Amino acid sequence: MAMVTFTENIQRHVPCPATEAAGATVREVLDNVFAANPQARAYVLDDQSALRRHMTIFVDGAVIRDRTRLSDPVTAGSRIYIFQALSGG
Questions:
Q1: By C-alpha distance, which of 36, 30, 35 is closest to 50?
Q2: Average pLDDT over residues 62-68
Q3: Residue 52 falls within a domain, yes or no?
Q4: Other CB atoms closer than 10 Å to residue 35's CB: what's the count?
């Protein structure tokens, strides 16, 4: 199963501990994670189930390409990191 980790800045807004989940794509893994945590789903995904503009996901160190369908492949040993983009100056 893939390991899914949410950054600390996300966890300040919504409880979402690191967890393992099965799936062959980012979408499948996140669907499994969010089935048990719908509050995190609403924070990460928009009303069309696409990745929100202020969020970024890395799979095994690479930024995902498909922010709409989340079809990027995942292996059983993948590490998925979910980040909230920060801005300011």
A1: 30
A2: 98
A3: yes
A4: 10
